[in-house]
Design a protein that fits this description.
alpha+beta, Nucleoside Triphosphate Pyrophosphohydrolase, 2 domains
């Protein structure tokens, strides 16, 4: 190649955000309704292009979350999920997107802004089962993000953040069932939780449950990594009386 003939390829850089929370006992995903082409009126992940060549990528992700869904990103831990850059993923040209993931409790209702005409929480099952089609390659990004979130519950005490300061084993199990999308055997779950060092510690007197049986109370323990890890295993539905151990 003759020196001076090479030109940098035209590649645009964007960010996309997979924001997950628990609402109404189900794992839910933040989506926006696009107000511009391409994919006008389609549902999509919040995101967009960097505003300038000087903008930091993580800064762009936080800005887009605020602009498109009205959520304050300052209190969220945005973790880089992956980079998506297959040719043809965006009809506007060669676009590479850096995807970020956040999993947090008690997130508020979103408010649409900028080029989004709507924003809402949607059960992830609607996306994973293809009941709801998303713009671009966002279904693949969501699938990766949900799997990463499920893996985090195996190896970290993240599930305790979705319980109150004091909780029962049954309440903790409900978090795992909502995120993993499976029913868990309560006796096995109880043994696994109790056998994981630093996961939870007892706190306070027994609490009466709806079944009238007393349940032990716990709070989050000091552990940052679960060992042995919690393992995803499903079971047949069990009686309500078995769940409050």
């Amino acid at each position: 190649m003759v020196e001076g003939q090479w030109r940098a390829p035209a590649v645009l850089l964007a960010v996309d955000l997979v924001i997950l929370t628990l609402r109404e006992s189900s794992l839910q995903l933040l989506l926006v309704k696009r107000g511009v082409e391409p994919y006008l009126d389609a549902m999509a992940l919040p995101g967009g292009f960097l505003s300038s060549v000087d903008e930091d990528i993580l800064t762009a992700a936080r800005r887009e979350l605020t602009e498109e869904a009205g959520l304050n990103a300052d209190g969220l831990h945005l973790e880089q999920l992956g980079v998506y850059g297959a040719p043809g993923r965006d009809p506007r040209g060669r676009v590479v997107s850096v995807a970020y993931l956040a999993i947090a409790p008690q997130l508020p209702e979103p408010v649409a802004g900028t080029d989004a005409v709507g924003a809402c929480w949607t059960p992830v099952d609607h996306v994973l089962s293809a009941q709801l089609e998303l713009a671009f390659d966002h279904q693949r990004i969501v699938t990766d993000g949900v799997e990463h979130a499920r893996a985090k519950l195996e190896h970290t005490p993240l599930a305790t953040a979705f319980c109150g300061p004091i909780f029962t084993i049954s309440e903790l199990q409900q978090v795992y069932e909502a995120v993993w999308g499976v029913r868990l055997d309560p006796r096995n779950f109880y043994r696994k939780v109790q056998g994981t060092r630093g996961f939870i510690v007892t706190d306070g007197p027994l609490r009466k449950t709806e079944t009238g049986r007393p349940a032990r109370l716990f709070r989050a323990g000091p552990g940052k990594v679960l060992y042995p890890p919690m393992v995803r295993t499903s079971s047949n539905p069990t009686s309500e009386a078995e769940t409050d151990q």
